[in-house]
Amino acid sequence: MIVANSNDNTVSVLLNLGNGLFSSKTAYTTGYGPYSVAVGDVNLDSNLDIVAANYGGNTVSVLLNLGNGTFSSQTTYATGTDPKSVAVSDLNLDNKADMIVANSNDNTVSVLLNLGNGAFSSQTIYTSGNNPYSVAVGDLNHDSNVDIIVANYGGSTVSVLLNRGNGTFSNQTTYLTGSGSSSVTVGDVNLDSNLDIIVANYGGNTVSVLLNRGNGTFSNQTTYSTGSGPYSVAVGDVN
């Protein structure tokens, strides 16, 4: 397990002991105010590395795996203002894990392309909706390219940015969600082989489901009631 600790500027790593139990934490320093963490093999050594979005520092931290479950000191890269969420995926079909960051206070997402050795390019910035809180990725239109989906808390929308095929992205298309969309994920919820969008609406006490029409455009939301203040959402076959 890897955990972002926003108040002490660290990530914790807890190694699995093999029976569903975990070791005590090992802490690694990040930038200021880590808010989100993702994992991926960013330097092609078959070991999972750690990426953290540092909300207070306007950076992302990359901690390379030394091959035994311990990690190097961080390398930081500039992002937009107040990054709240980070994802990793190969955006330009070069078999390298790139970074995507939601910058909550300047209404953008940053894309940092992997240079091939675990180092990253400077950010390229794309406009999102108001106050992006969460980012997810997936191939929404069956062109074998990974697209970007952003939950915009202040706008109560999700933004879809389609990949042009070279790691650059189209202007956003926005869809209405419930109030205060705080988290987004994707999954095929109706078994039609298309990735649908699922959003947690913190202000509305609902989750929204937007079905993919098969070409990367989406139906109007269907909402379902939750408890009070839903902040995060995940999908999986639990039954």
TrEMBL record:
Pfam families: FG-GAP_3. InterPro entries: FG-GAP, Integrin_alpha_N. Keywords: Signal. The keyword Signal applies. PANTHER family: SENSOR KINASE-RELATED. This is VCBS repeat-containing protein.
